[in-house]
Write a structure and sequence with these properties.
The chain has about 170 residues and is an all-alpha fold. It starts with a helix and ends with a helix. It has one domain. The protein is built from eight helices and no strands. The chain is elongated and about 55 Å long. Helices cover about 75% and strands about 0% of the residues. The relative contact order is 0.17. InterPro entries: Preflagellin_Peptidase, Prepilin_IV_endopep_pep. Keywords: Cell membrane, Membrane, Transmembrane, Transmembrane helix. Its main location: membrane.
Length: about 170
């Protein structure tokens, strides 16, 4: 039952965060909150030591500190900052650099793709969709939550947490 957090809740919430960011340019606070609560419930249920839990929390707090500064300077959105931090909580320090690299590469590809598409005329069918109009707007941001969520889903199966879940 403890594997439910990794096999169902985590991927579902990451997909929800990505789709919400795509459609509304926001990631609801509830997503990050549920991911945080689920991590701690999973960690306790799996019998992780308090030291391991503290290290995972340290990874989350470290990423939150950096991403909050980026948010304060208008570089990223608040939802992106919280999603990156709660993902770091799940991943811990072991795969944090790898996650940040994958998220950066995915985010760069996403940004270049959206910028390219913004240079093209919007098809008539798409012009009737509010999210397509928002994505096509050159003044709008980039739904970076898509890259953060994709990177999380790529990296999580490589973690010790994942190995522990498989062993349960």
């Amino acid at each position: 039952m403890t594997s439910l957090g990794l096999l169902v809740v985590f991927p579902f919430l990451m997909a929800y965060a990505a789709s919400s960011d795509l459609l509304t340019m926001t990631i609801p606070n509830q997503v990050s909150l549920i991911l945080m609560i689920t991590f701690f419930a999973f960690a306790v249920a799996c019998g992780l030591s308090w030291m391991v839990i503290a290290l995972h929390a340290g990874a989350g707090v470290s990423v939150l500190a950096v991403t909050f500064m980026l948010f304060a300077f208008g570089v990223i959105g608040g939802g992106d900052a919280k999603l990156a931090a709660v993902t770091a909580l799940w991943l811990g320090f072991d795969h944090l650099i790898e996650y940040l690299i994958v998220a950066s590469l995915a985010g760069g590809a996403l940004t270049l793709t959206i910028m390219f598409v913004r240079g093209l005329p919007l098809p008539f069918v798409a012009a009737r969709l509010p999210f397509a109009l928002r994505l096509h707007d050159t003044k709008a941001g980039i739904p970076y939550g898509i890259a953060l969520a994709a990177a999380a889903l790529v990296i999580l199966p490589k973690t010790a947490l994942w190995d522990r879940m498989i062993a349960v």
